[in-house]
Amino acid sequence: MTDLRETTQPIATSTNVGRTAAAAGLAVVLWASAFVAIRGIGDALSPAPLALLRLGVAAVTLTVLAVVRGTVRVRVSRRAFLLIAAYAVLWLAGYTVALNAGEQHVDAGTAALLVNIAPLLVAVAAGKFLGEAFSRSLVVGSLVALGGTAIIAAGASAQRDWAGVLLCLLAAVLYAAGVMVQKVTLRHVDGFTAIWLGCVVATAVLLPWAPQLAGEVREAPVGAVLAAGYLGVFPTAIGFTAWAYALRRMNAGRLSAVTYAVPAVSVLLSWLLLSEIPTTYGLVGGALCLAGVALSRRP
Prior knowledge:
By secondary structure, the protein is mainly α. It contains 13 helices and no strands. The protein is globular, with a radius of gyration of 18 Å. The two termini are 32 Å apart. The relative contact order is 0.21.
């Protein structure tokens, strides 16, 4: 039976710690911006076609970067490729479709609350299967941040639908499973190669929806198509590459707790970009999310 515990860890230096923190912060900001972009798309694109367009753009972007870097002929072992394919199906494809579908039934606040169960799932699973320390600060910080997302959700619209709730819970489970598989994958391949091949695999998995995507793109507003392109280049290609860089150098549970800041950053970006003035719930909940992240990062 394969031991999932860490065997090697990059040497920690002040430079590496700073780069890892910057990569994690970049991923949080870009993933938060995805909520703004998806809101702009609205009902113009269905969940699976939107996921296909987003991941297809990401795959093309990363392939171009691979050519520029001269790594387009990179070789990976059969084991590494199977791990890449597993997290591509679970996280990149499955999570994206489930979340897109869920947000058509529940408001964004509720979706953020439900999906933010994932970092707790990751922390528990990483402690059990990867041998990561399950510190008191991580538990307390995660609970504080989860409380913050609950407050944000309480201030959102009252739209509720059990289908949406179940889809968002499914997205959270797929998210957590994807992070766990990716953590193991990054022992066998570098972060860029992992996310590049993952996007290619996820795009291939979603190709059956290509005819539907072609029809919807012809009818969709130009702004919706451009927003989908943004999702592919920035939150997916760049955001997931930054995440993979940080995940290879940091415990999965502690890094996942950082994503509790996503709802808080989403509130701020909605305020700046969509002129949506945050409610008192949003401000208080956002502050708690950030406080929880700070607590979870304590040694």
